[in-house]
Design a protein that fits this description.
Rossmann fold; six-stranded mixed beta sheet; four-stranded antiparallel beta sheet; 26% strand; binds magnesium ion; binds adenosine-5'-diphosphate; alpha/beta
Length: 234
């Protein structure tokens, strides 16, 4: 066990039943989505820009709520979750990697990885040790004391992945995580995600516009005009 999880989720991770989503006063962006995410799944949502991928990922990741339909995350019906309960689940059990690389510029790489642990109330020495352990595991220990602008974009995004792992999540939401990376750095990030999925059984849901990138996942869904369909399964 590489991730020091408070709890290990081995049951269903998330399920969506007939989920619809419209932003205020606008047309439906998601139209009747059914999707199940199991323990250890690595799945990808493939669709063109504007298809609703980020909207879907935000709903799965408890960052937004559906207009209609039922969403369960870690066995909890999200309609019955208070905002505080949702915030706690996000902090303890879900890690996020976004398209825009968003490290805090005025603190070091190690301190960036510590942020989610700080929010959870983990004390300083333990935070530091855990951040260094993550950097070690993925070969980036030498960057610990640098600031984000002193490392490459590819390294920054791998650090963002380690920050997503800080609290030992059971689910990683990765929204077009390599959109700003070159081929080589994209491969390095994908290798990192695959390692987490295989060695730690972290479930991963990734969005991409690229069929080739989608090949990293075991199951690929197509999102077109608000509808989701299974593309293929490895
Ligand atoms: N907060 C929002 N308010 C209104 N419209 C939004 C909001 N977020 C996204 N949209 C619209 O929803 C559609 C789907 O967006 P998004 O989920 O970001 O798609 P994708 O990630 O596939 O590019 C787009 O037309 C976008 O403009
Ligand atoms: Mg998007």
């Amino acid at each position: 066990m590489h991730l020091n999880r408070k709890q290990v989720d081995t049951g269903p991770i998330a399920s969506l039943r007939d989920v619809w989503k419209a932003y205020k006063g606008e047309e439906y962006i998601l139209k009747g989505i059914d999707l199940g995410i199991g323990h250890g799944d690595f799945l990808c949502i493939l669709g063109p820009s504007g298809a609703g991928k980020s909207t879907l990922l935000r709903i799965i990741g408890l960052l937004d709520r559906p207009s209609r339909g039922e969403v369960e995350v870690f066995g909890r019906n999200v309609a019955e979750l208070s905002d505080d309960e949702a915030a706690r689940i996000r902090l303890e059990r879900i890690g996020y990697i976004f398209q825009s690389i968003d490290l805090i510029p005025h603190i070091t790489i190690r301190e960036n990885i510590e942020v989610p642990m700080y929010l959870r109330g983990v004390r300083g020495a333990e935070r530091r040790a855990r951040a260094l352990e993550l950097l070690d595991r993925f070969g980036l220990r030498h960057l610990a004391d640098r600031y984000p602008h002193e490392v490459s974009l590819g390294e920054q995004q791998r650090v963002a992945a380690m920050r997503a792992l800080a609290n030992g999540p059971s689910l990683i939401i990765a929204d077009e995580p390599v959109a700003h990376l070159d081929e080589e750095n994209a491969q390095l990030l994908f290798e990192l995600l695959k390692t987490l999925n295989r060695e730690d059984s972290v479930s991963i849901v990734m969005a991409t516009t690229s069929e080739e990138e989608a090949g990293v996942a075991d199951r690929v869904y197509l999102l077109r005009r608000g509808r989701l369909s299974l593309g293929y399964q490895v």
